[in-house]
Design a protein that fits this description.
Blueprint (H helix, E strand, L loop, with lengths): L1 E3 L1 H10 L3 H8 L3 H8 L6 H11 L8 E3 L13
Antiparallel strand pairs: 1-2
Length: about 80
């Protein structure tokens, strides 16, 4: 399962919030911001902090993308 934070970047553009501002508002580090830039996994604590800062829900900032290598099985695939 891969993640994409494309929705986060679009939401930040809509709200005219820079990455530096988001770091301060959400209380996240520069290292965490770099992980988000690379679409790396971050903790749910980070996601909830970002959502609180932007007044949104997790589904507004992240997409979970199934990959061919993932062990995730959809009900329809059984």
């Amino acid at each position: 399962m891969a993640v994409s934070y494309r929705k986060l970047w679009h939401l930040m553009l809509d709200k005219r919030i820079s990455k530096t501002e988001l770091e301060k508002l959400a209380g996240i580090s520069d290292y965490t911001m770099r992980k988000l830039n690379r679409d790396d996994d971050v903790s749910t604590e980070v996601l909830t902090s970002i959502c609180a800062a932007l007044n949104c829900e997790v589904q507004d900032i992240v997409d979970f993308i199934p990959t061919k290598n993932s062990n995730f099985v959809f009900e329809d695939d059984k």
